Amino acid sequence: MKTIRSLGLAGLILGLSACASAFPERGTLVTVPDDCAAQRFDIYFAENADTLTDAAQTAIALTASRLEGCRIQSVQVLGLADSTGSTGANQALSERRAAAVVRALSTAGWPAPAFEVTAAGDTGAMAAPGVEEPLRRRTEVLVEATPL
User: Fold this and answer.
1) pTM
2) What order do you get walking across the sheet with 39-44 strand by strand?
3) What is the CA radius of gyration of the chain?
4) Among 33, 61, 81, 145, which one is most buried in terms of CB atoms within 10 A?
5) pLDDT-flagged residues of the chain (< 70)
């Protein structure tokens, strides 16, 4: 009985050691994302506001520092607004939001010729009466970058 258990245990150990060598090394599976690649981030605003919050300024600064060693080829900035208020007011608000983000990115050293700025206002924003839409109170930023 001991011999059978010993053989079974030995077979299990050999089997497990064979499995361990069948898996690739961690370094071949886990990679660090390339900072100089397409990136997207959102900048959120308070209701009816076009002023950057401290969190928004921090997000812009962090992204700018992460992309310091990259050539920024294009930056698409899209201002959005929720459906509260008039269509005209929401269009103007989304334009001011996009402009505020562009100013902050320019201050962070991003090349102004790379910017493509658009504003959608409340186009596509629909909500039932009384429903809050904080996710529409934002500016989307899409960055195309390559290594220097």
Assistant:
1) 0.71
2) 39-44, 138-147, 70-80, 115-121
3) 26
4) 81
5) 1-21, 26-33, 126-134
